[in-house]
């Protein structure tokens, strides 16, 4: 697939994203998804399913593949989706919510990895990133739970959310079938001790193992 074809695929799928469904307020199982990069253009898709109430790991799968698409900002999904979807296919526990290391609506074409995953799986999906990618935002107040909107072309595409007092925020955006308010509530609930949500931390560790 060429870069032009990948961009056209994002444009084709974007109308399928559901940003109006508020999504579940509570879930039993939540999956963290992350991709690790190795030598020789190798990518490892890691999916870890946790019990939401206890953050106990109940299932995990990692799939290692050769990347089939070049490293192009805004098109990372085309490198990362194949191993992530392969890993999800091997899960024995179906998650109720996906939390992925990446962007959803906060993307140049409003269709980042979280949107793409949500549309292809049909599951409520949230993007949580360590750094800002598009738009502008003010620094939120220092208190845990504080946030400021991420604005792109005058539109709110996500939030800079403070998950730990005095620690730099994470960048939350809707992926599919979950509201921004609900997405931020889930992220805070899943980040009791660290800046990043525990499902993403677990998937990051697995992707490096």
TrEMBL record:
Gene field: nfi
Originating species: Nonomuraea recticatena
Site feature (Interaction with target DNA) residues: 71
Molecular-function annotations in GO: endonuclease activity
Cofactor(s) the protein requires to work: Mg(2+)
Annotated catalysed reactions: Endonucleolytic cleavage at apurinic or apyrimidinic sites to products with a 5'-phosphate
Protein name per Swiss-Prot or TrEMBL: Endonuclease V
Location relative to the cell: Cytoplasm
EC number: 3.1.21.7
Keyword line: Cytoplasm, DNA damage, DNA repair, Endonuclease, Hydrolase, Magnesium, Metal-binding, Nuclease
């Amino acid at each position: 697939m060429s870069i032009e074809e990948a961009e056209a695929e994002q444009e084709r799928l974007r109308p399928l994203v559901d940003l109006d469904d508020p999504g579940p307020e509570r879930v039993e199982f939540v999956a963290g998804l992350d991709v690790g990069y190795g030598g020789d253009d190798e990518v490892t898709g890691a999916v870890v399913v946790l019990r939401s109430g206890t953050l106990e790991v109940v299932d995990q799968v990692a799939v290692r593949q050769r990347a089939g698409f070049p490293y192009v900002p805004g098109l990372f999904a085309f490198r990362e989706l194949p191993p992530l979807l392969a890993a999800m296919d091997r899960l024995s526990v179906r998650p109720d919510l996906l939390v992925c290391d990446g962007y959803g609506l906060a993307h140049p074409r409003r269709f980042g990895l979280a949107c793409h995953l949500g549309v292809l799986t049909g599951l409520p999906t949230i993007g949580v990133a360590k750094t800002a990618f598009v738009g502008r935002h003010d620094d939120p107040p220092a208190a845990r739970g504080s946030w400021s909107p991420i604005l792109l072309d005058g539109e709110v595409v996500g939030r800079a959310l403070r998950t730990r007092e005095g620690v730099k925020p994470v960048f939350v955006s809707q992926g599919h079938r979950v509201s921004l308010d609900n997405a931020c509530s889930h992220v805070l609930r899943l980040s009791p001790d660290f800046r990043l949500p525990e499902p993403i931390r677990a998937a990051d560790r697995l992707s490096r193992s």
